[in-house]
Structure formats: structure tokens, C-alpha cells
Write a structure and sequence with these properties.
It is built from 16 helices and 22 strands. The protein is α/β, with parallel strands linked by helices. The protein folds into three domains: 86 residues, Udp-n-acetylmuramoylalanyl-d-glutamate--2,6- Diaminopimelate Ligase, Chain: A, domain 1 (3-Layer(aba) Sandwich); 214 residues, Mur-like, catalytic domain (UDP-N-acetylmuramoyl-L-alanine:D-glutamate ligase); 137 residues, Mur ligase, C-terminal domain (Protein-Tyrosine Phosphatase, Chain A), CATH 3.90.190.
């Protein structure tokens, strides 16, 4: 965003304290006082443990073009200041106004699992044809989404915005801010059961993405999930007029589904029902679930007129957010499937499915940690993962954390006790893996982000293992 302070005041519903500063131009928006750049607009946010207003004067002295100031915070500092009722809401209004001025076409993406990967695939496909701006990392909440919009170059043709949530009505807010013309829901999983209580309520929260969808907009979703059409028919669901729908998934009842899948060490090759009969897509990702993610992205890209040739190119040159089933080669010849970014029962089963289908390795080793925020049934979900593990899928099982112990206990019905190892100390887990693993083993590492199992991936990558 590049606007003068007078324009910014009008866009965010604020008032410039001194008209002499009206012509000062701000380039970009910063909310972290430690990252002030020359000529930026500093937005001091207020949280339970912090108040950015304490750093407003310092931001001006460091070269900020101006600052927003919440009226209930007393006398603002000297300099270019815009008074607003609420700094967060003002930033959200600013992003909405800026987005409209850029004329960028907006695609919104949400889902319990796979939304970031799908966002990256959509961006790669559309990037072959359009100038695309996408959510960086997981900047997908009520603060991150406005910042994503405000960091967008003005000549962007398409904005691909990931929308996350932890409670009801958060995605509705984001959708109404962005006003997308196309939205996509990847799936309805178990993440946020602790906050929402049921998968039905999670589905309602995800379908809120329709609240801001423009009239005649396209709704793309995983048709294998029955909760989405159920919520779509509920009287309380907000949706636009003339809604267009397209589904994808494994089942042939969808508008698009895979007609052939071949798993290779470096990725997956597949064909699809809606594609040209002679088009083979090569995806540098492992797993059936990522084929499904790709089909959703292909549905969106096809809607925007991307050619089959460009979609093939977009998939082959895909760049992904890190720690999403990265294949890492260890120094001693082991292969590491690093999927330590996050975990839910759905994504853990998908990751084990990837491990199961890998060929050419001596042993398949699963290192599974706690899945967090699953609510009252958390032990049950961990026990279900243990029951899901069989000798054909996993040769050795290592678990980490108190809930991981539930996985180990349940897996004992299918695996020999000598093939199951449960740990609550990460250092001991790493030591045991280094002693056990040998060249030609493949190791899956999967847990919720809070367990920090990427530390295990790093340790076994660099350590000298047994030969």
C-alpha cells in the first residue's frame, strides 16, 4: 500500500490530527515496533500482554510516515497521527478499502487440513498466467489477513487469501473483509474440537467463508465431506445469490476426481476426470491427500482460464511452505518425512498413508507426538491412531508425549511390543532413534506444532547413525 495520510484517514475512518501532514506518503503497514521501516504506517495494536501505543512516539522518531492512535489512549505523540476509534478495526477497514482500490480478484481458502498447501498450489498454477499475491506463511487471522492485503503490490491481479479460525464467526469477519469471488474449503477435520465441540460446528465455522462471497461467486469444496452440503442447506448459513458450486475428491460423484495415481519417491503422478485425457500431472508432493489438494487447486485454476499446459508447469515448479511432508535426506542415507508443522487425526492418518506407499526402503519408522486441542475426546482420538497402525503401514513406532503414549498402548494390538517405544523426554527419544536407525530406513515425523518435533528431524538428519 502506498497512500498519503489524508487518504489513509479517509480509508480507515480516522481523522488526521494536523492537516499539515496530509500529503505525507506511507509505504506499507507495520504492527511490530521492532520492524519499523522508513515511511511506513505504524499501527499500534492492543493485546492482553502488550500495547503498541507505548512505541508510537519511537516509531515516528525512527522514520515512520505516520501512526494510528486509538482515541481512548490519551494524548497522542507529536507528529503525523491519525486518530481512530479502534486501531485493529481501522487497519481492517484500511485493508478492505485498499483491496477494492487495487481491483485484484480475490480467492479465499480455508479448511481444517491442507489449506496452506492448497493455497500454495493455487498460487503456483495461477502464477503462470496472472500476477498473484498470496498469504505469507499462516498470516490468516483477523490481524494477518489485513496485513497480507496491505503488503500486496498495487498491480496484483489475483489475491489468494488463506482464512483461519479458532472460534465461530472469525472466518465470517475475514470473508466480509476480503469479499472473495471464489472460495475453497479443503475439508472438515478435528482441529479446534477443544474450542467448538463437534465436527458439525467446525463445518459451520468453515462454511462462514460464504458470508462475504460475491453474488454469483464460485464455491469449490471437497465433495467427499458430507458435512459441507449439510451445513449449506441449514437456514442459518449465509451465502450469496446465484451461488455456483464445483466439487472435487476421491469419489466419482464429484465434478473432478483422480482417474489414476502413481506414487514415486520424488512425488506423485496422476490424471483426473475433468482434465484432458492426455494430460498427466506431476506433483512434487507425496500422498493421496495432496492429489486431492491439487485437484481443488486445478478446479480453481481452470475456472480462471489457466491452460492445461500452464497447470502442468505450475505443479512442476511448486514452492511450498516448509514442514509440510518435506522429504529430507539424512547424512547416513536415511530418508526423513518431516511433517512436524501440525497434526490432527485426519492429517496423521494421511501421513501414515504416505509412509505406507513408499517403496524401496528397509524399514518404515513412524515418530508420532501429541495431537493438541482435540477436546474431551483427545485420548480417544490418539487411541484410534494406534488402532490404525498395522505392520503393513509401520515397522517401528516411536511416540512422544503423554497423549502419544495412548497411541503406543493402542498400537500394541497390531504391532509386537518390541516394535513400539513411548517417550516423554525428547532427548531420550532422539538418543534412541540415533541408536536404532540405519541407512535405507524412512522416518515419518508428525505431531502438533507445540511438540516441536522438527527438533527430532534436525537431530537425526545431522547425527552419524549406525551403518
Amino acid at each position: 500500500m502506498n497512500r498519503n495520510l489524508d487518504q489513509i484517514g479517509q480509508m480507515c475512518g480516522g481523522n488526521l490530527v494536523n492537516a499539515k501532514h496530509a500529503g505525507i506518503t506511507a509505504a506499507g503497514v507495520i504492527t511490530d515496533s521492532r520492524k519499523i521501516t522508513p515511511d511506513c504506517l505504524f499501527v499500534p495494536l492492543v493485546g492482553e500482554q502488550f500495547d503498541g501505543h507505548s512505541f508510537a512516539a519511537e516509531a515516528i522518531s525512527q522514520g515512520a510516515a505516520g501512526v494510528l492512535w486509538q482515541k481512548d489512549h490519551g494524548t497522542p505523540p507529536e507528529g503525523p497521527v491519525i486518530l481512530v476509534e479502534n486501531t485493529l478495526e481501522a487497519m481492517q477497514l484500511l485493508s478492505k478499502a485498499y483491496l477494492k482500490e487495487t481491483k485484484a480478484r480475490v480467492i479465499g481458502i480455508t479448511g481444517s487440513n491442507g489449506k496452506t498447501t492448497t493455497k500454495d498450489i493455487v498460487a503456483s498454477l495461477l502464477g503462470t498466467t496472472f500476477k498473484v499475491h498470496k498469504t505469507n506463511g499462516n498470516f490468516n487471522n483477523h490481524i494477518g489477513l489485513p496485513l497480507t492485503i496491505l503488503s500486496m503490490p498495487e498491480d496484483s491481479e489475483i489475491a489468494i487469501l488463506e482464512m483461519g479460525m479458532s472460534a465461530r464467526y472469525e472466518i465470517e469477519l475475514l470473508s466480509k473483509l476480503a469479499e472473495p469471488e471464489t472460495v475453497l474449503i479443503t475439508n472438515i477435520g478435528e482441529s479446534h474440537l477443544l474450542q467448538l465441540g463437534s465436527r458439525e460446528e467446525i463445518a459451520r465455522a468453515k462454511v462462514e467463508i460464504l458470508a462475504g462471497l460475491k453474488s454469483g461467486g464460485l464455491f469449490v469444496y471437497n465433495g467427499d465431506e458430507p458435512l459441507i452440503p449439510m451445513v449449506l442447506q441449514e437456514p442459518g448459513t449465509k451465502k450469496p445469490e446465484n451461488l455456483k458450486i464445483s466439487t472435487y475428491g476421491m469419489n466419482s460423484t464429484n465434478d473432478d476426481y483422480p482417474t489414476g495415481i502413481l506414487f514415486q519417491s520424488g512425488g506423485t503422478v496422476f490424471t483426473s476426470y475433468s482434465g484432458h485425457s492426455d494430460t498427466t500431472y506431476r506433483l512434487p508432493l507425496l500422498g493421496e491427500h495432496n492429489v486431492i489438494n491439487a485437484l481443488g487447486a486445478i478446479t480453481v485454476a481452470r475456472h480462471y482460464g489457466v491452460t492445461e499446459e500452464n497447470m502442468v508447469k505450475g505443479l512442476e515448479h511448486l514452492e511450498l511452505t516448509s514442514m509440510r511432508i518435506e522429504m529430507i535426506e539424512g547424512v547416513s542415507g536415511i530418508a526423513i518425512l518431516n511433517d512436524a508443522y501440525n497434526a490432527s487425526p485426519t492429517s496423521v492418518r494421511a501421513a501414515i498413508g504416505v509412509l505406507e506407499k513408499l517403496k524401496g526402503y528397509k524399514r518404515k519408522v513412524a515418530v508420532l507426538g501429541d495431537m493438541l486441542e482435540l477436546g474431551e475426546l483427545e485420548e480417544h482420538y490418539h487411541e484410534e491412531i494406534g488402532q490404525f497402525i498395522t505392520p503393513g503401514k509401520v515397522d517401528l513406532l516411536y511416540t512422544y508425549g503423554p497423549l502419544g503414549t495412548k497411541i503406543a498402548q493402542s498400537a500394541s494390538a497390531n504391532l509386537p511390543d518390541t516394535h513400539i517405544h513411548a517417550y516423554t523426554d525428547k532427548t531420550e527419544l532422539i538418543r534412541a532413534l540415533i541408536q536404532e536407525l540405519t541407512p535405507k530406513d524412512v522416518v515419518l515425523i508428525k505431531a502438533s506444532r507445540g511438540m516441536r518435533l522438527e527438533e527430532v528431524a534436525h537431530a537425526i538428519k545431522i547425527d552419524n547413525l549406525q551403518s
